[in-house]
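Q: I have 233 residues here and want to know how they pack in 3D. Can you give me a structure?
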Amino acid sequence: MKYVVVFDMDDTLYEELTFVKSGFIAVAEFLNDEFKIDIKESYNFMCDRLYQDGRGSIFNSLLEYYGIYTFDLVQKCVDVYRYHQPRIKLQGEVIDLLNSLKNYPLYVVTDGFVPTQEKKIQALGLPNFMKKSIASYSLGSDKGKPSPYWFKQIVNWEKVEPKHVVYIGDNAKKDFIGIKPLGFHTIRVKTGEYKEQVPSELHEAEYVIECIRKLPDVLKKIWSDFRLEGELI
């Protein structure tokens, strides 16, 4: 039987905090080039604000701290952050997992600012593993989750029924509610920003796992004949 495995990207296949810190380094380097501000000091300031207040208005606070705030400079920092070359990578256990699934069509569906998401996709080397990596806003933000638009596309491309497709994500607020009623299987990984979520039954995935290493066990529960690369039926 043909099965299709679809992943979210941020905080599912890698820790998104590593991208955030990569972006902070890029902004710190930019401010050092333009204003000779110490890279380590400004980077630590941004990290401290992140842990205290969340992402919010970190760049505003940073520029105000150094007495160089302007609206245009904030926007420049945002652009540096969004368009920088990410210093991120897949962990070995994720690479091993994806290699073990290579006999199945693999996809990524990820929300967010399209140029940034596409840079992440390339930096993580996802084209080496995925049949297609989809930045869902590429046709408009209305095509992002919880819209089932891209999942319906995948079903059409692969010529399978929704029950032969599983989606693995981390954010129960939006990842599953749009596709569960259509018959897609869903798995939530308790990682990243949303790991302590206590979703309603409406929003929760069909299965919940503590880490991505547990994924093969659940796939075998969903499809009794599911096998990893090299395993015998």
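Q: Anything worth noting?
A: The longest strand covers residues 106-110. The longest helix spans residues 16-35.
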